[in-house]
Amino acid sequence: MATTRVAIVNVTGYIGVDIARILLRHPEVELTCVTGRSQAGKTLSEVFPHLTSSDLVIQPELDASVDVVFSAMPHKASAEVCEPFVSQGLKVIDISADFRLKDLAEYEYWYGVEHPCSQLLEDAVYGLPELHREAIAGARLVANPGCYPTGAILALAPAMASGMVTGDIIVDSKSGVSGAGRSLTMTTHYAECNESVSAYAVGGHRHMPEIRQECGLLNPDLGEVVFQPHLIPMTRGILSTCYARLSEDWLARGEAAARDVFAVYRDFYMEAPFSAVVDAPPATKHVWGSNYCHVYARVDVRSGRLLVISAIDNLVRGGAGEAVQNMNLMCGFPETCGLEALPVYP
Amino acid sequence: MATTRVAIVNVTGYIGVDIARILLRHPEVELTCVTGRSQAGKTLSEVFPHLTSSDLVIQPELDASVDVVFSAMPHKASAEVCEPFVSQGLKVIDISADFRLKDLAEYEYWYGVEHPCSQLLEDAVYGLPELHREAIAGARLVANPGCYPTGAILALAPAMASGMVTGDIIVDSKSGVSGAGRSLTMTTHYAECNESVSAYAVGGHRHMPEIRQECGLLNPDLGEVVFQPHLIPMTRGILSTCYARLSEDWLARGEAAARDVFAVYRDFYMEAPFSAVVDAPPATKHVWGSNYCHVYARVDVRSGRLLVISAIDNLVRGGAGEAVQNMNLMCGFPETCGLEALPVYP
Amino acid sequence: MATTRVAIVNVTGYIGVDIARILLRHPEVELTCVTGRSQAGKTLSEVFPHLTSSDLVIQPELDASVDVVFSAMPHKASAEVCEPFVSQGLKVIDISADFRLKDLAEYEYWYGVEHPCSQLLEDAVYGLPELHREAIAGARLVANPGCYPTGAILALAPAMASGMVTGDIIVDSKSGVSGAGRSLTMTTHYAECNESVSAYAVGGHRHMPEIRQECGLLNPDLGEVVFQPHLIPMTRGILSTCYARLSEDWLARGEAAARDVFAVYRDFYMEAPFSAVVDAPPATKHVWGSNYCHVYARVDVRSGRLLVISAIDNLVRGGAGEAVQNMNLMCGFPETCGLEALPVYP
Amino acid sequence: MATTRVAIVNVTGYIGVDIARILLRHPEVELTCVTGRSQAGKTLSEVFPHLTSSDLVIQPELDASVDVVFSAMPHKASAEVCEPFVSQGLKVIDISADFRLKDLAEYEYWYGVEHPCSQLLEDAVYGLPELHREAIAGARLVANPGCYPTGAILALAPAMASGMVTGDIIVDSKSGVSGAGRSLTMTTHYAECNESVSAYAVGGHRHMPEIRQECGLLNPDLGEVVFQPHLIPMTRGILSTCYARLSEDWLARGEAAARDVFAVYRDFYMEAPFSAVVDAPPATKHVWGSNYCHVYARVDVRSGRLLVISAIDNLVRGGAGEAVQNMNLMCGFPETCGLEALPVYP
Questions:
Q1: So what's the ipTM on this one?
Q2: DSSP 8-state code for residue A36
């Protein structure tokens, strides 16, 4: 069988280059083209010394014939880049937010731009394999989830689907600095963010509607989602702590709820190769460098609340690894292909 | 006027030694005795090389005649140590949790020990100057607040006192590792906690009842307090993100609430030398090494919630600095004496 | 062909568990037994949550029939453990220092113990593949190099072998904290070593004679080796900066030396799959989580010196990965088998 | 006595703002003007939230009548700014490199610019109080030392002055990231430098001639200075490890040299309030946030070398604190005035 040829558009950001890292060792595909305007003409290893073994030259534009395209362009530009590829029948995985929100008005409100090709929204599949595995397998365009939504939705999905909770949801997330990208900002200047924790986007963050959309699909009675992200002095990882009120049914179970919640979560992720329900609070270190998500759920009888905590590596499970997992599903490869590496600890 | 003589019992923990650092430069007192069994016989500078200038010898027991005692002993042992000093008429500031909770049953439930001298509970004053300045000034025994409660209560007090919020409170706190103390544990082993975030004490943390007690004094209608601490890879600092539902009155104000909340907070802390109401989300770096608390409050109209975020240095404002501030009040010194140092940035 | 069965003795240290991480994904072997007294009876995933997928139970002693044994015991105990395995004809890779130094007196001087089975010293092969590939392939006992010596020797070997330098060598190394192991110490307590750099073992470090031995084999005229390690606030990585005086021959080349040195280094490592000669100063981040060593050499004409800088991941190239590379050579597997993962950046 | 009025030109860099932090609490001076073009019109507390208490407005240009000026402008621009102030008889402390090197050709070689007012070089005093206290006290223009030279010269001065060493000197320095300044660069982007160590300026660094100049004044027989800086993942601090060959005299002392070296160092710094000769290897944490320098010297008999290690806070002792110390000397204030704060540990 011919090897599948793959391209990465805009390889020079952190998710783009992490896709390259994974694909360079993926047994079923060949990375045949990477693009990036500012570094065009240089080899991958010149720009990214950790990829010493690669002499692939960064191109200004995609110029090769490929089967699959990952776009790691910024939003709006990404939709514009993806549209012709989709039309040509390539399989496209869009890392940007352009095809995640089904509600066009929501997209335009939160991103402040007009959508360049909203006609593709209907066909696009939200690329969270635990929720949409079959649709992804049949998709021609997959919207790779945001990093925060990946962690938050994986934390909440079993509770949503089972009617365990009711009312509003509070998601308090803590992200490593790589989530802010590779562009230089005062916020990500080492001496500014090292040894410091802060909240940001206190008025509202673009990832909130994504969490609400997917949780709402699982439970139409969902109330408001309050999502508050924080910047943490570490490179990789997102820990999301979710607070929700137990439903009447679950409150009535009393102490048994504590045991039942574990079973609900375990069953929900029984078939998911990268979602592990753990029985102690997870640390982002437990998933570092891997595509795993660790989820821990606990009932607090006193306050009548469910607490769920999830840990992911924001660049792998919340980005490059999830994108490759989606490619695997779209191409009929084993779902875990190229993603088997265990987390690097400590 | 004779200089006030001060002792620190158990100087070898992080809060103990930070009290020493401050007192060695305090113009109104003389640090005349420090104790610590494991290091007795050595000088402060041998055990703590940052105190190069001090040749004070660590004693096995307090053996000098002093006016003020700081006890940095563990709980239960601390109460036992403090009792005779209080009886002798010394001014005592207890860093442990022994005299913080007014409800003896609560204390015994959360700390799992019998209180060795509960007769002192009534006289002990909870040492948060913003709430109890006058009582502290007249106290013979001050219970220095826990680090988390300091940040959480300072975040919530104006909202509590003004009836701005109703129902349950969720406090999601992020602490640097020094909060876990100087004793060796796997949790605080560098390679285990560096580049990682995790929640701990998910079933309930001893600092919760302290937050509930003080918030409840300000607002008897307070619901449950859900308090969830997290360990963050940095040395110093606590950021507390607090979520509460706005009361009917405040919901009715609509957009005006956003402006009013700032005024309520600013007025509440008008006279507090170390509590600053800021107009952008604070970072723990903004208060590093200082006794300041930065508080930021924001109304989220969509979800009908108040978010308040506070930042402190857990060892200064959440420990040694607050203890010295209490001493200043008890001794009639200027409240800020010895604590004027500005935060060290970056 | 039957799968090769492998055991790890003392899996609970950082190198032991990193060998497990690699072997659990190694296509040619089956990890059939792991031992560790303090955690015996628990599964790997209970003790090490990043290995969620492994339900291998930690044994008190090696009790299975295996083909290859890795010993990650402390020195002296390791030799005692390895001896019977070697006698039984198993292939043994010893992570400890017990079989690294050919000179028994040196060993006993630096480690302060009597060697329990010095009769094996002659047969043991120093497991640095770049220098001893063929001997390793034929060995029954391989002494896995220390982490510092791996970086230092790889930096110096081409210069030594080519007669480029003369006289004493100064090696100034900077190591992440994981190099100090998983046992709790004040030195590796987070709040003590974070945001701080310090030198240690200023009077002499046990890895010096190892560097001297291997460099001396390449160049018998070697002078003294001054080796000074430092502790750096990061989890993984060693950067070694080496200073040596250019030989007369090389001084005479003048400016041409700058170009020639690169060629000498590149040629020396032409066949080495994991040693990359780079043309800009390396960072430990460039090799994070991988078995690569990056080496950069530069002539300083003004001072007549050669500077060589090498970067490794101390737990992989300086430990677990190198050990697996040695196993691959001993077992006739492809040298890079199981070690193909690219460095994780950023 | 009238309070001394002080200005800081270009307050918006890390050293500029750290001078502000110190001066805002200095009992003898009033900070009356701060300038900074990009942030002109804002208050100090708007730009630097840690200075909550200051409503000083940043000016585009120095417009007030002052007695002392600190210039934290970049080199060349700084000399141009300082010249008229010196002419007007103000006391000027220049943080830039413009007046450090006495040899005009050296300056122009290393900084690549023509010196705008070399006529002031003769009068300028190199502001290292331990070496030039009296000259500083009488100076109208002080060149504040570079951060690396401060640590390196303080490490080497006693050895130089006493003839303890001979030949070349190797200085291997490890600096926190704040030393690279507040301007955004890829090198100082959090995810790039966190969890990584690297060498930079391998071909030669501008601070080398400064070290050579001051060491050469103490010992005209000095050989070459090899200076190699490294970037370390921490915010503040420089550790310098210095290697030098012992002179014949000192080699002849044998084991006694170990004891004698301590006495030479201790005596040299007997009168220096901020230089402490310590008897164990220092850590940068021991001086964090303070003006102290800790120096540790050790003889290595085997290799015939002296190792000296110094630790400073690069922004205080290597910048703002040293500048204020120079101001104190120039103005006749107590040398330690405003600088008494002890290091913040942990």
A1: 0.97
A2: -
